[in-house]
Design a protein that fits this description.
Strand content: 35-45%
Structural class: mainly beta
Oligomer: single chain
Mean pLDDT: 88
Bound molecules: copper (II) ion
Protein backbone atom coordinates (compact mmCIF):
# COMPACT_ATOMS: atom_id res chain seq x y z
CA UNK A 1 0.00 0.00 0.00
CA UNK A 2 1.40 3.45 -0.87
CA UNK A 3 2.70 5.46 2.08
CA UNK A 4 0.60 8.53 1.37
CA UNK A 5 -2.53 6.45 1.46
CA UNK A 6 -1.71 5.01 4.88
CA UNK A 7 -0.82 8.44 6.14
CA UNK A 8 -4.02 10.00 4.89
CA UNK A 9 -6.10 7.23 6.44
CA UNK A 10 -4.57 7.86 9.83
CA UNK A 11 -5.21 11.54 9.40
CA UNK A 12 -8.89 11.08 8.54
CA UNK A 13 -10.21 11.53 12.04
CA UNK A 14 -7.38 13.46 13.62
CA UNK A 15 -9.13 16.79 13.15
CA UNK A 16 -11.55 16.19 15.98
CA UNK A 17 -8.83 15.45 18.54
CA UNK A 18 -6.84 18.53 17.53
CA UNK A 19 -9.99 20.56 17.69
CA UNK A 20 -10.77 19.33 21.20
CA UNK A 21 -7.30 20.43 22.30
CA UNK A 22 -7.77 23.83 20.64
CA UNK A 23 -11.16 24.30 22.25
CA UNK A 24 -9.65 23.76 25.68
CA UNK A 25 -7.39 26.79 25.23
CA UNK A 26 -8.62 30.33 25.72
CA UNK A 27 -8.34 32.49 22.63
CA UNK A 28 -5.27 34.60 23.43
CA UNK A 29 -3.78 35.15 20.00
CA UNK A 30 -4.21 38.57 18.42
CA UNK A 31 -2.53 37.63 15.15
CA UNK A 32 -4.51 38.27 11.97
CA UNK A 33 -6.56 35.15 11.26
CA UNK A 34 -5.25 32.99 8.44
CA UNK A 35 -7.52 30.86 6.27
CA UNK A 36 -7.53 27.08 6.58
CA UNK A 37 -5.85 25.79 3.43
CA UNK A 38 -7.66 22.99 1.60
CA UNK A 39 -6.01 21.41 -1.42
CA UNK A 40 -7.81 19.46 -4.10
CA UNK A 41 -5.28 16.76 -4.97
CA UNK A 42 -4.89 13.48 -6.79
CA UNK A 43 -3.85 10.59 -4.59
CA UNK A 44 -3.46 6.87 -4.86
CA UNK A 45 -5.60 4.39 -3.01
CA UNK A 46 -5.55 0.60 -2.87
CA UNK A 47 -8.98 -1.02 -3.27
CA UNK A 48 -9.44 -4.81 -3.40
CA UNK A 49 -5.66 -5.20 -3.82
CA UNK A 50 -5.58 -2.92 -6.85
CA UNK A 51 -4.15 0.61 -7.13
CA UNK A 52 -6.55 3.40 -8.03
CA UNK A 53 -6.03 7.08 -8.68
CA UNK A 54 -8.61 9.19 -6.86
CA UNK A 55 -9.11 12.79 -5.75
CA UNK A 56 -8.90 14.13 -2.22
CA UNK A 57 -9.44 17.42 -0.36
CA UNK A 58 -6.69 17.70 2.23
CA UNK A 59 -5.08 20.21 4.53
CA UNK A 60 -1.29 20.74 4.23
CA UNK A 61 -0.77 18.24 7.10
CA UNK A 62 -2.74 15.57 5.21
CA UNK A 63 -5.97 15.80 7.25
CA UNK A 64 -9.05 15.15 5.10
CA UNK A 65 -11.54 18.00 5.04
CA UNK A 66 -12.19 20.37 7.93
CA UNK A 67 -13.35 20.28 11.53
CA UNK A 68 -14.19 23.71 12.92
CA UNK A 69 -16.30 25.44 15.57
CA UNK A 70 -19.46 27.51 15.67
CA UNK A 71 -18.70 31.14 16.35
CA UNK A 72 -15.80 31.03 13.88
CA UNK A 73 -16.21 32.11 10.27
CA UNK A 74 -15.80 29.50 7.54
CA UNK A 75 -12.51 30.96 6.30
CA UNK A 76 -10.91 28.65 3.74
CA UNK A 77 -8.41 29.00 0.90
CA UNK A 78 -9.19 26.33 -1.71
CA UNK A 79 -6.16 25.46 -3.84
CA UNK A 80 -6.55 23.40 -6.97
CA UNK A 81 -3.67 20.94 -7.29
CA UNK A 82 -5.74 18.31 -9.10
CA UNK A 83 -4.35 19.14 -12.54
CA UNK A 84 -7.83 19.83 -13.94
CA UNK A 85 -10.65 22.33 -13.38
CA UNK A 86 -12.86 21.82 -10.36
CA UNK A 87 -15.19 23.57 -7.90
CA UNK A 88 -16.14 22.49 -4.38
CA UNK A 89 -19.61 22.82 -2.82
CA UNK A 90 -19.96 23.11 0.99
CA UNK A 91 -22.86 20.71 1.31
CA UNK A 92 -25.34 21.69 4.03
CA UNK A 93 -23.83 25.08 4.82
CA UNK A 94 -25.82 28.18 3.89
CA UNK A 95 -23.24 30.61 2.46
CA UNK A 96 -23.91 33.63 0.25
CA UNK A 97 -24.77 32.22 -3.19
CA UNK A 98 -21.50 33.36 -4.78
CA UNK A 99 -19.59 31.11 -2.33
CA UNK A 100 -21.75 28.00 -2.81
CA UNK A 101 -19.38 26.28 -5.21
CA UNK A 102 -21.70 25.51 -8.11
CA UNK A 103 -20.14 26.25 -11.51
CA UNK A 104 -22.29 28.59 -13.59
CA UNK A 105 -24.43 29.62 -10.59
CA UNK A 106 -21.88 30.66 -7.93
CA UNK A 107 -18.48 31.00 -9.55
CA UNK A 108 -16.49 30.04 -12.63
CA UNK A 109 -14.58 26.76 -12.40
CA UNK A 110 -11.31 26.92 -10.49
CA UNK A 111 -8.41 26.50 -12.94
CA UNK A 112 -5.54 24.09 -12.17
CA UNK A 113 -2.97 25.87 -10.00
CA UNK A 114 -5.44 28.63 -8.99
CA UNK A 115 -7.08 29.32 -5.61
CA UNK A 116 -10.33 30.79 -4.25
CA UNK A 117 -10.92 32.20 -0.78
CA UNK A 118 -14.18 31.62 1.10
CA UNK A 119 -15.19 33.58 4.16
CA UNK A 120 -18.70 33.56 5.62
CA UNK A 121 -20.29 33.07 9.04
CA UNK A 122 -21.21 29.54 10.11
CA UNK A 123 -24.87 29.43 11.11
CA UNK A 124 -24.89 26.26 13.18
CA UNK A 125 -23.02 23.18 14.33
CA UNK A 126 -23.49 19.89 12.50
CA UNK A 127 -22.17 17.17 10.24
CA UNK A 128 -21.68 18.49 6.72
CA UNK A 129 -19.38 17.63 3.85
CA UNK A 130 -17.71 19.09 0.81
CA UNK A 131 -17.62 17.72 -2.70
CA UNK A 132 -16.97 18.66 -6.30
CA UNK A 133 -20.00 20.02 -8.15
CA UNK A 134 -18.24 19.68 -11.51
CA UNK A 135 -18.77 16.88 -14.00
CA UNK A 136 -18.46 13.41 -12.47
CA UNK A 137 -15.53 14.20 -10.15
CA UNK A 138 -17.60 13.23 -7.10
CA UNK A 139 -17.48 9.59 -8.29
CA UNK A 140 -13.67 9.93 -8.18
CA UNK A 141 -13.90 10.65 -4.41
CA UNK A 142 -13.52 14.43 -4.73
CA UNK A 143 -15.13 14.83 -1.31
CA UNK A 144 -14.26 15.20 2.38
CA UNK A 145 -15.96 15.68 5.78
CA UNK A 146 -16.89 19.18 6.99
CA UNK A 147 -17.62 19.04 10.71
CA UNK A 148 -18.82 22.05 12.68
CA UNK A 149 -18.64 21.39 16.40
CA UNK A 150 -20.48 23.32 19.05
CA UNK A 151 -17.95 23.89 21.90
CA UNK A 152 -20.55 22.34 24.23
CA UNK A 153 -20.07 19.04 22.31
CA UNK A 154 -16.78 18.54 24.15
CA UNK A 155 -18.61 18.27 27.48
CA UNK A 156 -21.01 15.52 26.41
CA UNK A 157 -18.37 12.84 26.95
CA UNK A 158 -19.14 11.49 23.47
CA UNK A 159 -16.17 10.94 21.22
CA UNK A 160 -16.60 11.98 17.56
CA UNK A 161 -16.17 9.18 15.02
CA UNK A 162 -16.57 10.45 11.45
CA UNK A 163 -17.44 7.92 8.73
CA UNK A 164 -17.43 9.04 5.09
CA UNK A 165 -19.08 6.46 2.82
CA UNK A 166 -18.37 6.14 -0.88
CA UNK A 167 -19.31 3.92 -3.75
CA UNK A 168 -16.25 3.18 -5.85
CA UNK A 169 -15.46 2.19 -9.42
CA UNK A 170 -12.19 1.46 -11.19
CA UNK A 171 -13.83 2.63 -14.42
CA UNK A 172 -13.82 6.12 -15.85
CA UNK A 173 -17.16 7.60 -14.70
CA UNK A 174 -17.53 9.23 -18.12
CA UNK A 175 -17.57 5.76 -19.64
CA UNK A 176 -20.32 4.67 -17.21
CA UNK A 177 -22.37 7.76 -18.05
CA UNK A 178 -21.92 7.18 -21.77
CA UNK A 179 -23.19 3.62 -21.38
CA UNK A 180 -26.18 4.74 -19.34
CA UNK A 181 -27.19 7.40 -21.82
CA UNK A 182 -26.18 5.73 -25.04
CA UNK A 183 -23.71 8.51 -25.74
CA UNK A 184 -25.82 11.56 -24.82
CA UNK A 185 -23.78 14.62 -23.85
CA UNK A 186 -23.41 15.38 -20.14
CA UNK A 187 -24.94 18.57 -18.74
CA UNK A 188 -22.27 21.13 -17.99
CA UNK A 189 -23.32 23.69 -15.37
CA UNK A 190 -20.58 26.08 -16.35
CA UNK A 191 -22.05 26.62 -19.83
CA UNK A 192 -25.61 26.96 -18.60
CA UNK A 193 -26.07 30.32 -20.33
CA UNK A 194 -25.42 28.74 -23.72
CA UNK A 195 -27.46 25.59 -23.21
CA UNK A 196 -30.97 26.99 -23.42
CA UNK A 197 -31.62 25.33 -26.77
CA UNK A 198 -30.93 21.83 -25.42
CA UNK A 199 -33.53 19.49 -26.96
CA UNK A 200 -35.77 17.90 -24.37
CA UNK A 201 -36.86 14.33 -23.92
CA UNK A 202 -34.31 12.92 -26.30
CA UNK A 203 -33.81 9.22 -25.94
CA UNK A 204 -30.60 7.26 -26.32
CA UNK A 205 -30.37 3.93 -28.05
CA UNK A 206 -29.30 1.92 -24.97
CA UNK A 207 -26.02 1.08 -26.70
CA UNK A 208 -23.74 -0.91 -24.45
CA UNK A 209 -26.41 -1.15 -21.74
CA UNK A 210 -26.57 -4.30 -19.67
CA UNK A 211 -30.30 -5.03 -19.45
CA UNK A 212 -29.87 -7.88 -16.98
CA UNK A 213 -28.14 -5.50 -14.56
CA UNK A 214 -31.17 -3.23 -14.74
CA UNK A 215 -33.59 -6.05 -14.10
CA UNK A 216 -31.73 -7.09 -10.96
CA UNK A 217 -32.56 -3.72 -9.50
CA UNK A 218 -36.31 -4.13 -9.89
CA UNK A 219 -38.20 -4.99 -6.72
CA UNK A 220 -41.98 -4.83 -7.14
CA UNK A 221 -43.65 -1.44 -6.92
CA UNK A 222 -40.60 0.29 -5.46
CA UNK A 223 -39.14 0.51 -8.96
CA UNK A 224 -35.48 0.34 -9.90
CA UNK A 225 -33.10 0.64 -6.96
CA UNK A 226 -29.64 0.75 -8.48
CA UNK A 227 -28.73 1.82 -11.98
CA UNK A 228 -24.92 1.67 -11.81
CA UNK A 229 -22.79 -1.38 -11.03
CA UNK A 230 -19.82 -0.52 -8.81
CA UNK A 231 -16.61 -2.26 -7.77
CA UNK A 232 -16.49 -1.53 -4.03
CA UNK A 233 -18.05 0.38 -1.15
CA UNK A 234 -15.73 2.35 1.10
CA UNK A 235 -15.91 3.63 4.66
CA UNK A 236 -13.10 6.16 5.24
CA UNK A 237 -11.46 4.87 2.04
CA UNK A 238 -11.44 1.20 3.12
CA UNK A 239 -13.47 -1.93 2.40
CA UNK A 240 -14.55 -4.51 4.97
CA UNK A 241 -11.64 -6.71 3.86
CA UNK A 242 -9.34 -4.19 5.55
CA UNK A 243 -11.61 -1.96 7.63
CA UNK A 244 -10.68 0.95 9.83
CA UNK A 245 -10.48 -0.17 13.46
CA UNK A 246 -11.35 2.69 15.82
CA UNK A 247 -10.07 2.16 19.36
CA UNK A 248 -12.74 3.09 21.91
CA UNK A 249 -12.99 2.94 25.70
CA UNK A 250 -15.43 0.42 27.20
CA UNK A 251 -18.48 1.93 28.93
CA UNK A 252 -17.85 5.29 27.27
CA UNK A 253 -19.87 6.92 24.50
CA UNK A 254 -19.37 7.71 20.83
CA UNK A 255 -21.02 10.17 18.46
CA UNK A 256 -21.05 8.62 14.98
CA UNK A 257 -21.11 11.26 12.26
CA UNK A 258 -21.97 9.25 9.14
CA UNK A 259 -21.88 10.92 5.72
CA UNK A 260 -23.15 9.23 2.56
CA UNK A 261 -20.72 10.59 -0.03
CA UNK A 262 -21.77 8.04 -2.67
CA UNK A 263 -22.44 9.06 -6.24
CA UNK A 264 -25.37 6.68 -6.74
CA UNK A 265 -25.86 4.49 -3.64
CA UNK A 266 -28.41 4.64 -0.84
CA UNK A 267 -27.41 2.81 2.33
CA UNK A 268 -29.00 1.32 5.42
CA UNK A 269 -26.82 2.03 8.47
CA UNK A 270 -26.70 -1.09 10.64
CA UNK A 271 -25.45 -0.87 14.25
CA UNK A 272 -25.72 -4.63 14.78
CA UNK A 273 -26.61 -5.31 18.42
CA UNK A 274 -25.98 -1.73 19.54
CA UNK A 275 -28.79 0.69 20.31
CA UNK A 276 -28.31 4.16 18.87
CA UNK A 277 -29.95 7.50 19.57
CA UNK A 278 -30.40 9.71 16.53
CA UNK A 279 -29.05 13.14 17.50
CA UNK A 280 -29.18 14.87 14.12
CA UNK A 281 -30.13 14.38 10.48
CA UNK A 282 -28.29 16.39 7.79
CA UNK A 283 -26.63 18.39 10.60
CA UNK A 284 -29.87 19.52 12.26
CA UNK A 285 -30.65 18.32 15.79
CA UNK A 286 -33.70 16.11 16.10
CA UNK A 287 -35.53 13.92 18.60
CA UNK A 288 -38.00 11.06 18.45
CA UNK A 289 -41.53 12.32 17.73
CA UNK A 290 -44.58 11.25 19.71
CA UNK A 291 -44.53 7.56 20.58
CA UNK A 292 -41.65 6.74 18.22
CA UNK A 293 -38.82 4.70 19.74
CA UNK A 294 -35.86 6.67 21.02
CA UNK A 295 -33.47 3.78 20.33
CA UNK A 296 -32.87 2.19 16.95
CA UNK A 297 -30.37 -0.10 15.25
CA UNK A 298 -30.98 0.68 11.58
CA UNK A 299 -31.14 4.08 9.89
CA UNK A 300 -31.81 4.96 6.22
CA UNK A 301 -29.14 7.17 4.63
CA UNK A 302 -29.78 8.40 1.09
CA UNK A 303 -27.08 9.88 -1.12
CA UNK A 304 -25.57 13.04 0.45
CA UNK A 305 -27.53 12.69 3.72
CA UNK A 306 -25.88 12.53 7.16
CA UNK A 307 -26.90 11.00 10.48
CA UNK A 308 -25.36 11.71 13.89
CA UNK A 309 -25.94 8.73 16.16
CA UNK A 310 -25.00 8.53 19.85
CA UNK A 311 -23.90 5.18 21.24
CA UNK A 312 -23.90 5.37 25.03
CA UNK A 313 -21.89 3.04 27.32
CA UNK A 314 -20.29 0.81 24.69
CA UNK A 315 -19.93 -2.75 25.99
CA UNK A 316 -16.42 -4.27 25.82
CA UNK A 317 -15.75 -5.97 22.49
CA UNK A 318 -15.67 -5.29 18.74
CA UNK A 319 -18.67 -3.50 17.23
CA UNK A 320 -19.01 -3.29 13.42
CA UNK A 321 -20.82 -0.16 12.21
CA UNK A 322 -22.07 -1.19 8.77
CA UNK A 323 -23.63 0.44 5.73
CA UNK A 324 -25.48 -1.90 3.34
CA UNK A 325 -26.52 -0.85 -0.15
CA UNK A 326 -30.29 -0.88 -0.67
CA UNK A 327 -31.53 -3.71 -2.87
CA UNK A 328 -28.17 -5.44 -2.53
CA UNK A 329 -26.07 -7.55 -0.17
CA UNK A 330 -22.94 -5.38 -0.61
CA UNK A 331 -21.81 -3.47 2.44
CA UNK A 332 -18.97 -1.54 4.01
CA UNK A 333 -18.16 -0.19 7.45
CA UNK A 334 -15.73 0.38 10.28
CA UNK A 335 -15.19 -1.45 13.55
CA UNK A 336 -15.26 0.13 17.01
CA UNK A 337 -13.06 -1.94 19.28
CA UNK A 338 -12.31 -1.75 22.99
CA UNK A 339 -8.77 -2.75 24.14
CA UNK A 340 -7.91 -6.45 23.61
CA UNK A 341 -11.18 -7.14 21.80
CA UNK A 342 -11.19 -10.06 19.37
CA UNK A 343 -11.95 -8.63 15.96
CA UNK A 344 -13.71 -11.06 13.64
CA UNK A 345 -13.72 -10.54 9.89
CA UNK A 346 -17.00 -9.11 8.60
CA UNK A 347 -17.90 -10.38 5.10
CA UNK A 348 -18.29 -7.72 2.40
CA UNK A 349 -21.72 -9.17 1.59
CA UNK A 350 -24.66 -9.71 3.94
CA UNK A 351 -26.79 -12.85 3.75
CA UNK A 352 -29.87 -10.97 2.50
CA UNK A 353 -30.32 -7.93 0.27
CA UNK A 354 -31.31 -4.75 2.11
CA UNK A 355 -34.80 -3.44 1.34
CA UNK A 356 -35.51 -0.13 -0.35
CA UNK A 357 -35.00 2.96 1.78
CA UNK A 358 -38.11 4.28 3.51
CA UNK A 359 -39.23 7.61 4.94
CA UNK A 360 -39.57 6.06 8.43
CA UNK A 361 -36.96 8.47 9.78
CA UNK A 362 -38.94 11.46 8.49
CA UNK A 363 -42.10 10.06 10.09
CA UNK A 364 -40.46 9.22 13.44
CA UNK A 365 -38.28 12.26 14.14
CA UNK A 366 -39.00 15.92 14.65
CA UNK A 367 -36.69 18.95 15.00
CA UNK A 368 -35.26 19.46 18.50
CA UNK A 369 -36.39 23.07 18.12
CA UNK A 370 -39.46 23.46 15.92
CA UNK A 371 -39.46 26.29 13.38
CA UNK A 372 -42.22 28.84 14.11
CA UNK A 373 -45.56 27.60 12.73
CA UNK A 374 -46.61 29.67 9.75
CA UNK A 375 -48.85 29.31 6.72
CA UNK A 376 -47.08 29.08 3.38
CA UNK A 377 -46.89 32.31 1.37
CA UNK A 378 -46.04 30.37 -1.76
CA UNK A 379 -46.74 26.79 -2.81
CA UNK A 380 -44.83 25.24 -5.68
CA UNK A 381 -45.02 21.80 -7.29
CA UNK A 382 -42.06 20.01 -8.77
CA UNK A 383 -42.60 16.88 -10.85
CA UNK A 384 -39.67 14.47 -10.89
CA UNK A 385 -39.70 13.14 -14.44
CA UNK A 386 -37.84 10.74 -16.69
CA UNK A 387 -37.00 7.08 -16.98
CA UNK A 388 -34.23 4.52 -17.19
CA UNK A 389 -34.79 3.92 -20.91
CA UNK A 390 -32.29 6.24 -22.54
CA UNK A 391 -31.49 7.59 -19.07
CA UNK A 392 -33.64 10.69 -19.50
CA UNK A 393 -34.04 12.54 -16.20
CA UNK A 394 -35.49 15.97 -15.54
CA UNK A 395 -37.72 18.17 -13.38
CA UNK A 396 -41.14 19.32 -14.60
CA UNK A 397 -40.30 17.49 -17.84
CA UNK A 398 -37.26 19.63 -18.53
CA UNK A 399 -33.53 19.18 -18.33
CA UNK A 400 -31.26 21.66 -16.61
CA UNK A 401 -30.48 24.41 -19.09
CA UNK A 402 -34.02 24.27 -20.47
CA UNK A 403 -35.46 24.42 -16.92
CA UNK A 404 -37.89 27.00 -15.59
CA UNK A 405 -36.54 28.45 -12.31
CA UNK A 406 -38.74 28.19 -9.21
CA UNK A 407 -39.41 31.79 -8.10
CA UNK A 408 -39.37 32.83 -4.43
CA UNK A 409 -39.28 36.17 -2.68
CA UNK A 410 -37.21 37.20 0.35
CA UNK A 411 -39.14 36.67 3.61
CA UNK A 412 -41.65 34.16 2.26
CA UNK A 413 -42.44 30.78 3.79
CA UNK A 414 -42.17 28.56 0.73
CA UNK A 415 -43.56 25.04 0.35
CA UNK A 416 -42.51 22.79 -2.52
CA UNK A 417 -44.33 19.53 -3.16
CA UNK A 418 -42.14 17.08 -5.06
CA UNK A 419 -44.12 14.45 -6.99
CA UNK A 420 -42.15 11.44 -8.20
CA UNK A 421 -43.47 10.36 -11.58
CA UNK A 422 -40.56 8.02 -12.33
CA UNK A 423 -39.63 4.42 -11.64
CA UNK A 424 -36.74 5.28 -9.25
CA UNK A 425 -36.49 7.14 -5.96
CA UNK A 426 -34.56 10.44 -6.04
CA UNK A 427 -32.65 12.14 -3.18
CA UNK A 428 -33.53 15.80 -3.75
CA UNK A 429 -31.08 18.42 -2.44
CA UNK A 430 -31.75 22.15 -2.09
CA UNK A 431 -28.73 24.45 -1.82
CA UNK A 432 -28.43 27.46 0.48
CA UNK A 433 -31.35 26.59 2.77
CA UNK A 434 -32.36 24.15 5.47
CA UNK A 435 -35.89 22.87 4.91
CA UNK A 436 -38.39 20.98 7.03
CA UNK A 437 -40.18 17.87 5.75
CA UNK A 438 -43.82 18.92 6.34
CA UNK A 439 -45.87 16.35 4.39
CA UNK A 440 -45.52 12.86 2.95
CA UNK A 441 -48.08 11.79 0.34
CA UNK A 442 -50.20 14.81 1.33
CA UNK A 443 -50.26 13.91 5.02
CA UNK A 444 -48.95 16.75 7.20
CA UNK A 445 -46.25 16.04 9.76
CA UNK A 446 -43.52 17.83 11.71
CA UNK A 447 -40.60 16.02 10.09
CA UNK A 448 -36.92 16.76 10.64
CA UNK A 449 -34.96 19.67 9.21
CA UNK A 450 -32.82 18.49 6.30
CA UNK A 451 -31.05 19.56 3.14
CA UNK A 452 -31.73 16.35 1.22
CA UNK A 453 -34.85 14.19 1.25
CA UNK A 454 -35.59 10.99 -0.63
CA UNK A 455 -38.73 11.09 -2.78
CA UNK A 456 -39.78 7.43 -3.20
CA UNK A 457 -41.33 5.88 -6.27
CA UNK A 458 -45.00 6.95 -6.48
CA UNK A 459 -44.31 9.24 -3.51
CA UNK A 460 -44.98 12.89 -2.79
CA UNK A 461 -42.84 14.82 -0.30
CA UNK A 462 -43.46 18.44 0.70
CA UNK A 463 -40.69 20.62 2.10
CA UNK A 464 -40.99 24.07 3.69
CA UNK A 465 -38.35 26.75 4.16
CA UNK A 466 -38.09 30.45 4.90
CA UNK A 467 -36.62 32.36 1.96
CA UNK A 468 -33.83 34.29 3.63
CA UNK A 469 -30.73 33.72 1.49
CA UNK A 470 -31.07 35.66 -1.78
CA UNK A 471 -29.54 34.35 -4.97
CA UNK A 472 -29.84 31.59 -7.54
CA UNK A 473 -29.70 28.18 -5.90
CA UNK A 474 -29.25 24.71 -7.30
CA UNK A 475 -32.06 22.23 -6.54
CA UNK A 476 -31.32 18.76 -7.87
CA UNK A 477 -31.31 15.02 -7.56
CA UNK A 478 -28.14 13.99 -5.71
CA UNK A 479 -27.73 10.83 -7.77
CA UNK A 480 -24.68 12.09 -9.66
CA UNK A 481 -25.64 10.41 -12.93
CA UNK A 482 -29.23 11.69 -12.77
CA UNK A 483 -27.95 15.22 -12.14
CA UNK A 484 -25.47 14.90 -15.00
CA UNK A 485 -28.36 13.83 -17.24
CA UNK A 486 -30.13 17.11 -16.36
CA UNK A 487 -32.18 16.41 -13.20
CA UNK A 488 -31.61 19.87 -11.76
CA UNK A 489 -33.37 23.21 -11.60
CA UNK A 490 -32.88 26.46 -9.68
CA UNK A 491 -34.69 28.33 -6.92
CA UNK A 492 -34.31 32.02 -7.77
CA UNK A 493 -35.13 35.06 -5.65
CA UNK A 494 -37.27 37.71 -7.36
CA UNK A 495 -36.16 41.30 -7.00
CU1 LIG B 1 -32.44 10.90 -9.26
Amino acid sequence: MPMNSRFSRRRFLAGSAALAAAAALPCLSRAAPAPTVLRVVKRSLEVNGRAASVFGIVQPDGAHGVATLTGMPFFVRLENQAGEETLVHWHGLTPPSDQDGVPGLSQPLLAPGAAYEYNFPLQRAGTFWMHSHHGLQEQGLLAAPLIVNDPIDFFTGLRDVVILLHDFTFRDPQEIFAELTGGMAMMDHSTMGQSQKMPMGESGDMAGMDHSALDQGTMGNIGHLNDVELDAYLANDRTLDDPEIVAVEPHRGVRLRIINGSASTNFWIDLGALDGVLLAADGSDCRAAGAAAQLARRFPLAMSQRVDIALYRLPPGAHPILAQREGDTARTGIILATPNATIARVPTHAAEPAPALTLDLERSFTPRTLPPARAADRRLTLDLTGNMMGFVWGLNGRKFGAHQPLPVRQGERVEIEMVNRTDMSHPMHLHGHTFQVVAIDGQRLNGPLRDTVLVPVNGRVTIAFDAGNPGRWAFHCHNLYHMAAGMMTTVEYEA
